[in-house]
Amino acid sequence: MKNFIIIGNSAAGIAAIEAIRKIDTVSKITVISDEEYPAYCRCLISYYLAGQTKEKDIFYRTESFYRAHNVELLLNKKVARVDPKKGRVVLRDRNQRSFDGLLIATGATPKIPEAVKGIKKTGVFGLRTLQDAKAIAELLPVTKAAFVLGGGLVGLKTAYALRKKRIDVKVVVKSKQILSQILDYDGASFVQRRLQENGIDILLGQDITEIIGEGEIRAVKLDSGKAYDCSMVIVGKGVSPNIDLIKDTEIKVNEGIVADSSLQTSVPSIYAAGDVCESLDLTRGAHAVNALWPVAVEQGKIAGTNMAGGNLRYDGSLGMNSLEFFGLPTISLGIYRPEAGEKFEELKKSDPGAQVYKKLLLKDNHLVGAVLVGDIKSSGAYLRLIRERIDCSSIKDMLLQEDFGYPHIVDFVKEKENVYV
Amino acid sequence: MKNLYYEVDKCVACKSCEVACSIAHSATGDLFKVIREEVLSLPRKKIHASKNKNYPVSCRHCQEPLCVDACMAKALEYNEEKGLVLHDESRCVGCWMCVMVCPYTAIRPNIKTKIPVRCDKCSDKDQPQCVKACPTHAILWQEEAVTKR
What we know:
The complex is a heterodimer.
Chain A: E1 3-7, H1 11-23, E2 28-32, H2 45-50, H3 63-68, E3 71-74, E4 79-83, E5 88-91, E6 96-98, E7 101-104, E8 108-110, E9 124-126, H4 130-139, E10 145-149, H5 153-164, E11 168-173, H6 185-197, E12 200-204, E13 208-212, E14 219-222, E15 227-229, E16 232-235, E17 239-241, E18 257-258, E19 270-272, E20 277-280, E21 287-288, H7 293-307, E22 320-325, E23 328-334, E24 345-351, E25 356-363, E26 366-373, H8 379-387, H9 406-409
Parallel strand pairs in A: 1-2, 1-7, 2-3, 7-19, 9-16, 10-11, 10-16, 11-12, 18-20
Antiparallel strand pairs in A: 4-5, 5-6, 8-17, 13-14, 14-15, 20-21, 22-23, 23-26, 24-25, 25-26
Chain B: E1 3-6, H1 16-24, H2 31-34, E2 46-50, E3 53-57, H3 66-70, E4 76-79, E5 84-87, H4 97-101, E6 108-110, E7 115-117, H5 129-133, E8 139-142
Antiparallel strand pairs in B: 1-8, 2-3, 4-5, 6-7
């Protein structure tokens, strides 16, 4: 019988519990979370804010799940530090717990631009936790105008939610396009137009310099010199992995906690998964943090299995995002734009009338990325071509076909069972 | 547990299966009323042509379903007993993550209803209606696969 500790109670942590219990039903599992709720669907908090998801439907697992899996769940507890040498974690309340296997799945925290004057004022929020969403929701009845910093997924999902609540929303984006971390310029402009048509103001190439107000926020000032009235500011400037607890230990950290192909960290029996984990990125072949729900679930499953004595290999992650604003579905897979010095073959189809835009990037006849706006049906086939590194030479002219799908790749992929006989 | 299998050489892409599927999942269940329904019932099966062959494509209810792992709303669940990926539409927010990851391009987005449509093996009926509708017997409903290709 072993003692497993999982720090973090979201996608990766839950997947790890399920994976451990598939192999090992007797060992002790303790989950430590600094939040006050059982696991909830983090990606749904903007839908909760918009009023589209009710609180009762936001939970990912209920309390009975922990009972059924024989898990001790410690809520509202923060791990201050991990002591790999002694094999124990020290909580902020000074309690200690020893482990035989540890999974660090602590997630990430919104980055706060410290240089902005007044950024610490009440009325400035990140949107990461259900608690954040509740705090924002409480203020909505007295909020007329809000400013969102950052044109990434979290920023825009929040803007969308606030708009649904009939709040006047402006989004300030430092770069020349929205969603610059997941879409190319052309793809992003389709999404941008859709947002603008539905009443969300987007200010590109600008940044906020000051949040004005005594006590309550009254306005924000931009680097253009203009000031706008508002009483709420939401920060969506990306997240940074929660790695404070392993500071000054021998666990290797880069941007996130570096994990190998079994998702073990540089210290045996300590694993990392989810938004805190830096692992191999399949498309570029280098280590990266892909802070995404499906990635976290897969990593949690593999880390949990390996902790419990299994032997699963993690092939690596890749960026994959799906979003939908006002009826325009959009998906981004892998590489969406070349970086300096990179060259890709580009296949493109753009039909502004039909609101469809597709761009595929290939390298040496292998698909490495896709941007799909308006028509996302073929996404799963593209993802497979990327993941399984399939040579696309013979199907290149079909890739952009409207009905491109599984039948077009059936001869190239290996299946456990065949459905077509 | 029965599954759907396809003899692609027999499929002539008549789309009878698509029509039968739409009707089976409509509110009225009647061909002549179905087209007047407010929310059009989309077929959960689609015929795709590739290299002169026709492939009926629909959810295969994978035993290790990537869509379930990707679902950020916990609207999907794999039920081992029934061999079905169950979709709780009341929890679904239409984020299209399942569409994004499906290795068989078998889940289709219904943009209007913001709900993906997928095969449920007509679990409320005696057998999938596509099987009944197929005039060439290209769709098989059987326990075990003939895995030779």
